[in-house]
Structure formats: C-alpha cells, structure tokens
Amino acid sequence: TGTWGGIKQYLYKLKQRLRMSINIYKSLLNYLDPHLALDLIDFLEENKVFDQNLVQILKIKTLARTKMFDYALEIIGQLNSEIKEREEIKKLQQELNEQKESTSKIIGGSKAQSEPLLKKIDARYQELQQQHSGTGKLVFGFEERPAELTKDIIESAIIYSRYMYDAGEYPEALKNALALYYLVEDEQQKQNLLWGQLYSEMLVEGKRDDALETIRILKSKLDQSTQGSQMYSFANRAYLIHAGLFLYFSKDLKDKEITQLVELMSDENQLSVIQLTCPYLLRYLTAAVVLSKGAQLSDTFNLNTIANLIQKGVCNYNDCLTEFINAVFRDFNFELARETIRRFDDELKTDFFLAPHIAILKNSCQQLIFETYCKIHRTLDIKMVAEYIGGSVEAVSYTHLTLPTIYSVQISVVAVSLKKKK
Fold first, then answer.
1. Nearest partner of 168 among 219, 140, 203, judged by Cα
2. pLDDT tens for each residue of 252-301
3. CA–CA separation, 83 vs 76, rounded Å?
4. What is the percent of the chain with per-residue pLDDT over 90, rounded to a whole number?
5. What is the rounded CA–CA span in Å between residue 40 and residue 29?
6. Taking the CA of residue 155 as centre, how many other CA atoms within 13 Å lie in the half-sphere pointing to its CB?
7. Other CB atoms closer than 10 Å to residue 268's CB: what's the count?
8. Three-class SS string for the chain?
9. For a tag site, which of 8, 34, 115, 224 has the least CB within 10 Å?
C-alpha cells in the first residue's frame, strides 16, 4: 500500500509538472514573435517534450502568423494521413494558399511604388557598411533626404519591409528598418521600426550586440513614453522581457549580460508586468538573480529582494527555483533546499531558456546554501555542509579556509575536502 501510495504521489507530481510546462509554453508563445517562437517549437520537437503531432500542428499555426507560406505547406505535407485529414488542417491549408496568392499581389504593388527609395537605401547601406568600423551599431542616415519622398512612398516601403521580415528575409528587413527609422517622423512609426530592428537583429547572424543595444533603446523609450493605455504599455513591456529572455539566456552566459537581464526585469514597471500579466516570468527573474550572484547587482535589487518577493507571494507562481529561495532565505531549511536542487534536472530540462544552464544553476544554488549556512552558524560542521551541497568528504590536509561570514567560526572537522559527487 505504501509503495502504491508513493507511485500515485509521483504520478500526480509528474502530471502537475507537465501541466506547468504546458501553461508556461502557452503563455510564452502569446508574447513571442512567431519567428522567435519557431526556435522554441524546434526545441520541443527535438527534445520530445510533448506529443509530436501536437508540436507539428503548433508549428504550422505559428508559421501561419508569418508569410512563410511554402514552409508551412511543406510541414502540412509531412503530417501523417490521419492528422492531415482533420477539418482544421484542411481549412488551414486552404487559407495558406489563399493568403499566399493575395499577399503576392499586395506586396507587388508596395514594392513597385517604393522601389526607387529601396534602391537608394540599398546603395547608401553598402556605402555605410564600407565605412563602418565594425564596432557598435550601424547609424543609418542620408547626406541629403531623398528627393520626392512622399508619405505614401514611405508607407509602401514600410509595408514591403515588414513583408520581407515575415517572409524570413531578415537581413533585407533589417537594412530597410534601419533606414526608414531616420526617414519617418511619427513617433509610433519610429517605435514600430525599432521593434523591427530588434527582431531582425536577433535573427541575423553576427548582430547580437546590436540587438542588445536596441533592446536598451526600446526600454528607455517605453520608460519615457506617455502615449497609449496602461494595457498597451504592459503588453509592450511583456514583449520586451520575452525578447530579453532570448537574448540574455544564450548558451554562453556572461555575468554582465545576466546582470542586464535582471535590470531589464526588475524595475517597478517591469515587476508590475510580471505580477499582473506574466507571473511565470518570476522563474526567469529568479534564475537570473541566482546566476548573477557573482556579479555586481544594484543596491535596490539583489538576492534579498528576490527572496522578499517570493516570500510575500507578490506573484501567484511557484516552482523548484522559488521553493529553493524560500527554503534557504525564509526557512533556513538546508535539507529541503538540497532536495529542491535535485528536482532541477527533471523540472528544468524541458525549459527552452534554462535547460542549457542547469549545471551552473545547481552549482550557484549549492554555493548559496554554503554561504547562508556560514552566515547563521558560529560552528561549522563541514561534513553536514558537504551533504547539504551534494558533496563528499574525503581526508586531506587544509592549508586555509575562507568563509563568507564576519564571525569567528569553530570548525568541527579537521581534515576534510568538499569534493563534488560525480
């Protein structure tokens, strides 16, 4: 009976974790540009996180939000016959074919009307590329504003450039967005073109540093803006944070950039977005703060701040990361903290952003246990600490030991080493 009860409890927890993953991915996809979302869907497909047929349908529906019609139709062609015959798939296939034909006619007109301007943009871009030092974002501008430049021509160029992005022609879209930003006068159009620059830079190889600069510019403009409703402001801030997750949680983590992600997510306005609109983002803010603990965070937001947020239940969200912070900073329950770290592999391996960083997250959390234990104890039992952080104790000779505490500490073990278990 006890064994069966344990199995039922395990299956229940497994079901809860799967439900949490599904809810997080649903929410992420709502705030991600579809071109970025495709990377996330590829991750789900490669790692077999969910049913593969459902993932394929999700990819088709995401592609339907772009102008990559041929790719979407190709994916439909690869579906098994049973799914392909579903009414929703047949309807989607028909709509894609119709959109492909109608879009071709509309874009043809926009391209023809704006072609003289597009040629001047291309020529100027080539010229500026040759002059560019390769350091910093390219500042686009014309020596003289192109003659006979009308509002209609600019509008046509914007429509065509947006189409190029939607069709997956990111370098072309980026070039036009850089130029058009300096040609339009309307502030809302300028902001829209900045979003176009950001997403294009994120998808063009070698433009990541430019994207980091653009995301900071957009954050500054959102902070200064007084236009639009609060709901509109919240939505834009949510889009910006989600784009930031893609940029900053790269495979090669850098302390400085993780600190920038904390800054992006942690001011009062951004925290309101997390609390009221996207509570699951608390997972990524917590991870960023833990990962950046070795870097210099601001005085107003650090590990203690994130611990207070979690303890007060500011966000209606809970997972292994938030439970770890509670165990260490509120309850000082280091045994529970250790058990929580053991869940990281199972719970985070299906997370697109955090899966590549599980090892470093575990290491950072173990270090937090050690530091916190030392700060609240005058007597240090290294064998006990080794157990808390998942290490082993072996006989060696210590020449020195530096502890994160201002107190004098009595060590109850003379000859040990903290060696991580393999």
1. 203
2. 778 788 889 999 999 889 999 999 899 999 999 999 999 886 555 556 67
3. 9
4. 49
5. 9
6. 5
7. 7
8. CHHHHHHHHHHHHHHHHHHHHHHHHHHHHHHCCHHHHHHHHHHHHHCCCCCHHHHHHHHHHHHCCCCCHHHHHHHHHHCCHHHHCCHHHHHHHHHHHHHHHHHHHHHHHHHHHHHHHHHHHHHHHHHHHHHCCCCCCCCCCCCCCCCCCCHHHHHHHHHHHHHHHHCCCHHHHHHHHHHHHCCCCCHHHHHHHHHHHHHHHHHCCCCHHHHHHHHHHHHHHHHHCCCCCHHHHHHHHHHHHHHHHHHHCCCCCCHHHHHHHHHHHHCHHHHHHHHHCCCCHHHHHHHHHHHCCCCCCCCCCCHHHHHHHHHCCCCCCCCHHHHHHHHHHHCCCHHHHHHHHHCHHHHHCCCCCCHHHHHHHHHHHHHHHHHHHHHHCCEECHHHHHHHCCEEECCCCCCCCCCCCCCCCEECCCCCCEEECC
9. 224
Length of the chain: 422
Look up the pTM and report it.
0.84
pLDDT of residue 300: 66
